[in-house]
UniProtKB/TrEMBL annotation, chain A:
Keywords: Membrane, Transmembrane, Transmembrane helix, Transport. It is a multi-pass membrane protein. Residues 291-306 have a biased composition (Basic residues). The keyword Cytoplasm does not apply. It comes from Brachybacterium endophyticum. Its main location: membrane. This is Sugar ABC transporter permease. It is found in: Cell membrane; Membrane. Belongs to the binding-protein-dependent transport system permease family.
TrEMBL record, chain B:
InterPro entries: SBP, TAT_signal. This is ABC transporter substrate-binding protein. Residues 1-27 form the signal peptide. GO terms for cellular component: ATP-binding cassette (ABC) transporter complex, substrate-binding subunit-containing. The keyword Signal applies. The keyword Acetylation does not apply. It holds the Pfam family SBP_bac_1.
Length: 314, 440
């Protein structure tokens, strides 16, 4: 009976998730278009099954500019460096906000503005800032050509991405911070803990469940980064990510190769998510803890109690 | 749907879903297989006798002039009305919509507005039909524009708009340096820049579109042709490693090495380079004619107002050659009422429409007559030079895999101009890639 009740959901999932995925996987094994007739210049139409040829092409980077490994390392760099800095900045922002203004909604909302701006718009904005004669160069009194090939282009992407998404981690962390009971801090002060050890021994362990989920979401988001480098840098190799390779192949009507790139990216993201959840135990499905704001007084009290015990255990 | 499947056990339903999905996948592939047996598309079966309402799909009509044209046409053709389908402004988005439509064999678009570089791809895939030359005002069009609409000797589109780049020079700075005429070659231009830079600290020399995008392909096609080479010959064979082609690229590299072209030009697209010249930071600029009106603006936005000379783009050895840009009109192979579509294309090529478009949008049209028109000559004093630029223009490669080809050209040229590879190595590597890409 329980399965029957789940049926509509399963059907829906099969339709909107399963079906495209299967189709994509199938398409990644085919190639469209054929040879050009040398006399008329007309191309032979039709798809043909090519087995794993597209995957071989993908890894050897055929017809994709700087190729697969360049895009792979860019994606990894943007993800690892970007999310690390975002996390540190986000947590710092949350700590400051929690300290200074426990409940001023306006400040919190305005912190979130960069995150609410559509990525394409913020990419265009940063393009102006990073222009050869733009504001950034004027401020540092030195002309760095940010949008040319090289480390500076990667730095530009990272700066724009961190600016945009650190507030997201900050806000989620702030929500987590506000569930920590003041009593825990008071007890720590009584025991003579300094600020540093309070942060490492109390704040961080208690906010960890929320923080881990926030970081996981950011990881998945960063790995499929597309619009920011696409708008900011265009075709520069320095900004090419895996999803850009897929889009590039599709625009050349090479749908088989495009599907292969997407499947590889899909597998990579799955792997990272799996490892992350295993290693850090991200509580994604809420088995342990529901996010704040809901529930009555008794629920809140229970949660406080629980977080307190968790904290003392850690 | 969910009510009828309630009674089924979960597992068999999932299995059915999976089967359905794979069956659909197979069906999709089967569908396109069919077309190969029927000779690919409707190219052979174009019927220009059918008449009736059609649609006209082209980029967004930002000027509103197209709507005027359609009103004029629809007033005279009650039974053959044309409906405008406005596509996104970005050329890439337009192309992908056309391709999606062609692959679905949809008759939603009858007349297509194609960028000049798409002709080969659309013709080779038989997404557009061959057009009868005798029913269109082809002879009235500039030959270079007709070339952009031709693939393997057959006409697949009618040229509507065209474009050629020009060299904009700073008259005042040239006079200070004791020069009265704009330079005809890169050598002359570099010499003038050296003189000007001697007396103007921090002045940048020559600007063009050297960022890694389509604009770079335009620059390279032009400079290679003016050095006497060509990236592709008439038979579509690449010659990127010829002595002339290498020399063409080398001239630009020398400009960067000797600071005649500023490093920041590697970030220039049309607008960035236009802005730099307009702010008085460049002595010379190669760009499309649209920039002229902005330079001559007297509202204070331009620092070069009244100080601009217009001439042909600089040459390496021969004559200055610009890439030909523009828009052609083609008929979808899956369209109904191709007779009306053909008439409508001819109507768009008629002198009245050609002149109105140029006059109101500042975008040059393909007809020879507009360049002789007195009104237009008055509005655009450089019209004769522009005609010259288009006449001598370099047509970008007419290849099916244009996306790959232009990307390869950009990679090679950008690598060389930014100082990573030397011209000879870049071009011989490019030659290898282009050979692979045109092999089929």
């Amino acid at each position: 009976m329980a399965y029957l009740l789940l049926l509509p959901t399963l059907v829906l999932l099969a339709l909107v998730v399963g079906f495209p995925l299967v189709l994509s996987a199938w398409q990644s094994l085919t190639q469209s278009g054929g040879d050009i007739d040398p006399a008329t210049g007309i191309i032979k139409q039709g798809d043909s099954f090519v087995g794993l040829q597209n995957y071989a092409d993908a890894f050897s980077g055929a017809g994709a500019g700087a190729g697969f490994w360049n895009a792979f390392w860019n994606t990894t760099l943007f993800t690892v460096v970007g999310v690390s800095i975002e996390t540190v900045l986000g947590v710092s922002m949350a700590l400051i906000m929690a300290r200074a203004m426990r409940s001023t909604g306006i400040v919190r909302a305005s912190i979130l503005v960069p995150w609410a701006i559509p990525t394409v718009v913020s990419a265009l904005m940063w393009q102006l800032i990073f222009d050869a004669n733009g504001i950034f160069n004027r401020v540092i009194h030195y002309q760095v050509l940010w949008t040319t090939e090289g480390w500076q282009a990667k730095a530009a992407v990272l700066v724009a991405d961190i600016w945009k998404t650190a507030p997201y981690i900050g806000l989620l962390t702030l929500a987590g911070l506000q569930t920590i009971d003041d009593q825990v801090y008071e007890a720590a002060t009584m025991d003579g803990a300094n600020r540093w050890s309070t942060f490492w021994k109390i704040t961080l362990p208690l906010v960890r469940p929320v923080l881990v989920v926030a970081v996981l979401f950011r990881l998945l988001d960063a790995m499929r980064m597309f619009d920011l480098p696409y708008v900011l840098l265009g075709r520069l190799e320095s900004g090419q990510t895996l999803s850009m390779l897929a889009s590039d192949a599709a625009s050349k009507t090479n749908y088989g190769l495009a599907s292969a790139y997407s499947m590889i990216l899909f597998a990579y993201i799955c792997l990272v998510a799996f490892v992350f959840i295993r290693v850090l135990g991200a509580d994604v499905i809420g088995a342990q803890n529901k996010p704040a704001k809901r529930g009555g007084r008794s629920a809140r009290a229970a949660r406080r109690l629980r977080t307190t015990t968790e904290g003392s255990m850690a | 749907m969910s009510t009828s499947t309630h009674s089924l056990p979960r597992r068999s339903l999932l299995a059915a879903g999976g089967l359905g999905a794979s069956a659909l996948g197979l069906a999709a592939c089967g569908g396109s297989d069919d077309s190969s047996s029927s000779g690919g598309g409707g190219g052979a079966t174009a019927n220009f006798d059918e008449r009736g309402p059609i649609t006209f799909a082209t980029g967004k009509d930002t000027s509103g002039v197209l709507k005027e044209f359609l009103e004029r046409w629809n007033k005279d053709h009650e039974d053959e009305k044309v409906t405008l389908v406005e596509l996104p402004e970005s050329a890439d988005d337009q192309r992908s919509q056309f391709i999606n439509n062609a692959q679905a064999k949809s008759d939603a678009y009858s007349v297509l507005g194609l960028d000049v570089v798409w002709t080969a791809e659309f013709a080779a895939n038989q997404w557009v039909v061959e057009l009868p030359k005798d029913k269109l005002p082809i002879d009235a069009m500039i030959p270079a524009t007709v070339e952009t609409a031709t693939y393997f000797g057959k006409l697949y589109a009618m040229p509507f708009a065209t474009n050629g780049q020009l060299l904009f020079s700073r008259k005042d700075l040239l006079e200070d340096a004791g020069v009265s005429e704009p330079p005809a070659t890169y050598d002359e231009m570099y010499q003038i820049i050296e003189k000007v830079q001697g007396s103007n600290e921090g002045m940048n020399g020559f600007g063009g579109q050297f960022s890694k995008y389509e604009g770079l392909t335009c620059q390279i096609s032009g400079v290679v042709k003016s050095a006497g080479g060509e990236l592709f010959d008439k038979d579509g064979k690449p010659h990127a490693d010829s002595k002339e082609a290498v020399e063409g690229l080398q001239v630009l590299r020398d400009g960067f090495d000797k600071k005649y072209i500023p490093q920041e030009a590697l970030t220039y697209k049309e607008e960035e380079s236009r802005q730099a010249f307009q702010d008085g930071k460049l002595v010379f600029l190669q760009n499309w004619p649209y920039v002229y009106e902005k330079f001559e603006a007297d509202d204070g936005s331009s620092k070069v107002n009244g100080k601009v000379l217009v001439s042909l783009v600089p040459a390496v050895t021969g004559e200055g050659t610009s890439t030909v840009g523009g828009l052609n009109y083609a008929i979808s192979a899956f369209a109904k009422n191709m007779g009306t579509a053909l008439d409508f294309i001819a109507f768009m090529g008629a002198p009245e429409q050609q002149k109105a478009w140029f006059e109101q949008t500042s975008n040059p049209t393909a007809s020879k007559a507009v360049f002789e028109d007195a009104d237009l000559k008055k509005k655009y004093p450089f019209l004769a030079t522009l005609k010259d630029s288009i006449d001598k223009g370099a047509v970008r490669p007419q290849v099916v895999k244009y996306g790959e080809v232009t990307q390869a050209i950009q990679e090679a040229a950008y690598g060389c101009l930014s100082g990573d590879t030397d011209a000879k190595a870049a071009m011989s590597d490019l030659q290898k890639q282009l050979t692979d890409l045109t092999k089929g």
